[in-house]
Amino acid sequence: MRRTIFMYLFFFAMLFVVFQYMNEKKIFEKQENKIESLRGKIKLLKTELKKATDSVEVLSSKVVDLNYFTLQGNENAMAYFESLGFEANDIEKLVSEFIYDKNLSKGDNSIVPYEGINGAMKINKLKFLNYKWILADYTDGKYWGEMIIEYYITNDKKIELTSVASLLYPSY
């Protein structure tokens, strides 16, 4: 009797070991498949990251090229203002506010050399090219144009503006 009990215990233990082995083998295979899948995703992500990095480098290069003709991108213009005791950012804000405040007056903006046909001519957008010139976009709602403004700032921060050139686009 004792012998049969040990024999049944031995078979039961063998069945348990075989069951555990098969179960662990399935788990191991699933984990290996998951690891391989994740490795593939990592390779794909690395490729996409390299493409994104390359794109960022190209765009950064373009931004540097585009900022060449701006007040903030022009070292000489910034040095000019610093030699006068001004900061380029402060000058941009000061002149922009001065020009946009002229939009608040009734009628056309006095800087724009054209009278509005469809309404009052107002300046929409400004781009500072350097320490002397601004490119401006203006419109009356239907007709629009662009102009180059020459600006000068006195030591007591008074702003003098002169329209250098302007154009009014034809209506189509």
Characterize the structure shown.
This protein has three helices and four strands, in the order αααββββ. It is an alpha+beta fold and about 170 residues long. It folds into two domains: about 1-65; about 70-170, no CATH class. A hairpin with a 4-residue loop joins strand 1 and strand 2.
Topology:
Layout: H1 2-66, H2 75-83, H3 88-103, E1 122-128, E2 133-139, E3 144-153, E4 159-168
Antiparallel strand pairs: 1-2, 2-3, 3-4
How many H/I helical runs?
Answer: 3
Largest sheet: 4 strands, antiparallel
Q: Report the mean per-residue pLDDT as an integer.
A: 89
Poorly predicted runs are none
Strand content: 15-25%
Strand order of the largest sheet: 1-2-3-4
Distance between the termini: 109 Å
Per DSSP E runs of 2 or more residues, the count of β-strands stands at 4
Number of domains: 2
Calculate Rg over CA atoms: 37 Å
Order of helices and strands: HHHEEEE
What is the structural class? alpha+beta
Descriptive key words:
alpha+beta, 172 residues
Give a summary of the structure in a few sentences.
The protein is of the alpha+beta class and 172 residues long. Helix content is 52%, strand content 20%. It folds into 2 domains: 2-67; 70-168, no CATH class.
